[in-house]
Each structure stands twice: as structure tokens, then as C-alpha cells.
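Something for you to look into today, if you have time. Just paste the record in under my message, thanks.
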Amino acid sequence: MAPTKKSKKRKRDSKKLKKCKNLSVVPMEPRVSEPDWWEIFWHKNCSTSGSSGPNDEAEVFKYFFRTSKKTFDYICSLVREDLVSRPPSGLINIEGRLLSVEKQVAIAMRRLASGESQVSVGASFGVGQSTVSQVTWRFVEALEQRAKHHLRWPSSSRLEEIKSQFEASFGLPNCCGAIDATHIIMTLPAVQTSDDWCDTNKNYSMFLQGIVDHQMRFLDIVTGWPGGMTTSRLLKCSKFFKLCNVGERLNGNARKLSGGSEIREYLVGGVGYPLLPWLITPYESDDLPPLKLNFNTVHGAAKSLAVRAFSQLKGSWRILNKVMWRPDKRKLPSIILVCCLLQNIIIDNGDELQPDVALSGHHDLGYQEHCCKQIDPLGNTSRENLANHWHQNKEKICSS
């Protein structure tokens, strides 16, 4: 009798066993200690910062990675378990050593911060383009899960602090934050083109809406929606809008104003947003009386915090300010979220945001804000009461 042939299942099991044996010898951390990646990177790349760039080592580190070394180490601690527990066999440097967690985080953060090509970033670290791609996405996945606590709607005690700061700075009582939206421009393959993603400037883009506090820290974001939408439509598609409408957001105690009126908790937003009881927009007219003009000025100053936050975000993490080359529309929201998380982590860890890297112009340069004509009667009353309160207290506010 001829010998029996091995079944396909047995062959597959045999291959799996061999694969497992091969994987088992891959160390979770490099057995041979990798030379200090930062020292090598610094000496190799510090000249590229230009003669006007920083010379101090700590400043050079922030120049390339946007964070202090202390905050960088904290970020490494957040993602370490994920990056160590999934060691891809291809992640080795030119000397054959597995990349350390610190070097993986540095590669990913440099890619996000510079917006340079994967080839260019790889060359500065001595790794290939595919390694930069793998490392960056693994970092994004890990931080998205491990840093969620850095982007949550604030507790009631924290919200009281935010409201106090808005009132002290702008004379706007019970204000919980400023809201704005920005376009993240991208290039889509021909097979994916859609009018939905084509915005008013004929760019393919994805929208990002953010609510920020007095520190330009993100309190809530929504992204993943096509840039062809209006900001008012984006707002109404957000979970935040739905929570406000059912009384689960901006539902704290009302404040007494001058004259006995009350103002509930609210946000300040631009003319692209509807005027709602919890969202105060500026007055619109070519011939406004001084009271309303003055209110628009202080309202604009408060709302500019959101504008500045987006300018800082896109300036710090320049991957968001360059045309994304054929991004995976399922991955891009994660990249956007992680950049917002990084901005919050910098603030939460006591690092100063670097104003010199912020965009010098508007974060959506060239875009004109679509004016929303929706006016809620209760929102209109709230704005009138707020404007009158500010007018009656302006001398006290300006002197404080």
C-alpha cells in the first residue's frame, strides 16, 4: 500500500507550529542595547534646524518632537505595553537591532510633527519608509486607546474653573468654552472621489470640529465628516449637539446677570454656527449700535481661543497642515484625534505650547465661513441679556 498523504490540515498545523517557533525567539525588547537614539539623532540632524534654530539640547528636543523630554517619557510610558507586546519582526534599524520603544515613539512623533515624507523621516533615523509607516500607525493606535483620559468633557469642578477664567479674561459669565472647525486637506484616489468630500475651495478635505477651554485645550472633538458640509451641519451631526439637546451637556446652574436676568452655560462660536440657547454667536449687521459692536469685540476675543488652538494644532503637528496623500479615510480620524491628544498631553504635563510653531495665518486660510441664519428665540434673548450685562459692567471688567 502506498504511504498515506498528509492532509492539508496537518500541513497547515505544521506550518503554524514552525511559525510560532520562529516567533518565539524574537525578543520582546532588544537584547543588545541600542545606542542612545537621541544622541545619534541630535548629531545627525541638528544642523537641519537651520542657523536660527535652538542650540540648547532641551530646546532642540522640543523643536523636533514638540514636547519636553519629561513629557516624551510620559508618552512612552502610555504606549510601551502595546509597542512591546506586538514586536513586528521588520522593525529593525540598519545595524540589525530591534527598535526601542523610545525610538519608535520618536519616529512617529517626528512624522506627525514635521509632516515630512516617510522616506525623509526614515533617513533621519536610519530606518526605511515601511518602518516609518508601521511605527507611526502602531503609535497612533496605541495612543488613541491609552490617552483617552486626556480628552474628556470636564468634571463640574473643572468646568467651574474654566468659567471663572472666561469671565475674568472676557467678562463673559458662565461661558464653558469656544467652538470652531477646520479642514484637513487630503488627496483621494480617483475611484474614491465624491462631491461630499469636495469643499467650497474645491479641495478634498475632512472636517474637524473642536471645543477648547481658556488654555486652548481640547474638551471635545468630532471628525471623520466630509469637508463639503457646512459647520452648522457638522455641529448637528455631532454627539455633543445631541447631548446638549437632551440636557446632558452644558446643563449646570444658570448665572444671575445684571438686571435680574439669567444666563445658562454656553459656548461662543462664529457666524457659521446657529444662535442657540447654549451657543452664542456674534451680531450680524452693517450698522450695529456701540453696545452690540463692543459685545462682538469681546465675543470675538473669546472665540479666537478656538482659532488659535487650531493654528497651534496644525502648526505643531504639521501632518495636518499638509495635503494628506491618499489617506485611508478610516485611519485619518485616528491621526487627527491623536494630534489633539498630544496637544492636551503637552498642556496637562505643564509644558508650554510653542507659539513659534503655530501657523502665522488663519488655520483655514482662504476659506470663507458660511453664514448660518438660524436664530433660536431663546438664544437671541440670551445674547441680548449677555450683551447688556457686559455693557453695564464694562468699566469693572476693563479695570480688572
User: Anything to note?
Assistant: The CA atoms of residues 79 and 143 lie 6 Å apart. The beta strands are 175-187, 204-212, 218-226, 255-256, 262-263, 266-268, 279-280, 324-325. DSSP finds 13 helices and eight strands in the chain.
